[in-house]
Design a protein that fits this description.
With about 425 residues, the protein is an alpha+beta fold. Helices cover about 40% and strands about 20% of the residues. Strand 7, helix 7 and strand 8 form a beta-alpha-beta unit. It binds a DNA duplex (13 and 19 nucleotides) through helix 9 and strand 9.
Length: about 425
DNA sequence: TCTCCGATTAGAC
DNA sequence: CTAACGGTCTAATCGGAGA
């Protein structure tokens, strides 16, 4: 009897951020311009067009180091425009969701689709590509295999080899063909094998994915931990990592940012911290949770070794778990006052909400006086108004008022798809 | 010695 | 023009403190 093989597919958009920019600037595509998208503060390269990759521009390269090559090759650099990418992502995901009843959105530009039970895998994969391209202009590649790890790897093959025409399926191969393919892939190409593990694996003579697949899971587990064992089993076609259709509630929510310019005043830090709290608590409310722990941190510039460094953190247990921006902001400012020291140039700050649980279980403080000044309804109203009229329409008075710490974004594109006023700028 | 906890590490995008 | 190196998140693991 034939063993039941699952058909897990991983659909991933090519050069997603760059493509989002390119779609609204056909002139750039026509002129074959080299495009890169920069991280917050225009810090480093986080996405590259095919032309940029061909030029040898590396992922994560600091932008200032590329300025010379950039002007030589007429590179077009965009500041990141997350509103645009998130909107394009939503369109992409809803299209992809029509191809399978089981979808896990894994990141902004990729998702797993369980195609087990369908008999026309190839046709579905090509139809997916065609429809996405027609309706959004995005280009996706499809990888299929019996496990998520092999689906990811298949996607890697599909992207790398033009011969595959954007679709690669391990389940279409004989075992000899499969071994042949795996023998030509680097261990570092495997999902879950990063730089460190690659070095360790190479040291023991394991260089190809085939060698890793055929290594002994038990002894590999002893040397590398459980994750490695799962990876090896998945490479053998055993499903160890399940598809997660519902996004689990976050256990920790971080909001932090590097500043466009160094900040020295506590007032400006307080302003930034209030902004971060608003952001983090908003996410907390969006998943119907409350937090019991708040951490506040401020940092100097770690790349400036000539300047004094100071990176304090303070953890503040909240007496009553809450999702109330105003209450949390109050504690956060107290925390800031505790750790702040004059005479440093701060380059980054942030808040972390932890000890997160569902909002209906509220562990109240036995010894605190019963205060009923809950501003929960104010928060709900604020969230509603901000959802309707745009983020930041209503905010806490301190939040962003001084704007001494704002991010640099010199090359931001219009919000083509999310702001009526900016649609006309589409060429 | 065991367990719990926070801190650190490694990986992903 | 200066100067300039991201932000979030999870799971596993480590190491110290207390039971």
């Amino acid at each position: 009897m034939q063993k039941w093989r699952r058909n897990i597919s991983l659909v991933d958009a090519n050069n997603f951020y760059c493509r989002c920019q390119q779609i609204f600037r056909p002139d750039l595509e026509r002129d074959k311009k080299v495009i890169v998208v920069l991280s917050n503060n225009d810090g480093c390269v986080v996405a590259r067009s095919a032309e940029a990759k061909a030029l040898g521009i590396k992922m994560g390269e600091p932008w200032f180091k590329l300025k010379e090559i950039a002007s030589k090759h007429g590179i077009v650099a965009f500041s990141s425009n997350y509103a645009l990418y998130a909107d394009m992502s939503n369109r992409l995901m809803s299209i992809l969701g029509t191809f399978s009843p089981i979808q896990e959105v894994y990141s902004i530009d990729e998702c797993f689709l369980d195609l087990t039970g369908f008999t026309d895998i190839r046709e579905r994969a090509y139809a997916t590509r065609a429809l996405v391209s027609k309706w959004t202009g995005l280009v996706v590649c499809v990888g299929v295999g019996p496990s998520k790890t092999l689906a990811k790897l298949a996607n890697h093959v599909a992207k790398k080899h033009p011969k595959s025409k954007g679709v690669f399926n391990f389940n279409d191969l004989t075992s000899t063909q499969e071994s042949n393919v795996l023998g030509h892939l680097e261990v570092g190409d495997v999902w879950g094998i990063g730089r460190r593990q690659s070095v360790k694996l190479h040291a023991m003579g394991i260089e190809t994915v085939l060698q890793l697949r055929d290594a002994d899971p038990a002894s590999m587990r002893a040397k590398f931990g459980v994750v490695m064992e799962k990876t090896i089993r998945e490479l053998r076609g055993e499903e160890c990592i399940g598809i997660e259709e519902v996004v689990p509630a976050k256990q920790q929510i971080v909001s932090s940012r590097s500043f466009g310019n160094p900040v020295v005043l506590i007032e400006d830090l307080a302003d930034a911290i209030t902004h971060f709290v608003t952001n983090a608590a908003g996410k907390l409310r969006a998943q119907n949770s409350i937090a019991g722990l708040l951490q506040v941190f401020i940092m100097t510039d770690r790349f400036r070794e000539d300047r004094p460094q100071y990176n304090p953190t303070v953890a503040i247990p909240l007496p009553v778990a809450t999702a109330d921006s105003m209450k949390i902001a109050g504690y956060a400012i107290q925390g800031l006052q505790r750790i702040f020291k004059d005479g440093y140039q701060y380059k980054k700050a942030g808040v972390i909400l932890g000890d997160i649980g569902p909002e209906h279980i509220i562990q109240t403080d036995l010894f605190a006086a019963q205060e009923d000044g809950s501003s929960a309804s104010i928060m709900a109203t604020m969230d509603e108004i901000n959802a309707k009229y745009g983020r930041g329409t209503l905010k806490l008075s301190n939040d962003g008022a001084r704007n001494a710490w704002g991010m640099r974004a010199d090359n931001k594109s219009p919000h083509y798809t999310t702001n009526w006023d900016e649609i006309a700028t589409c060429k």
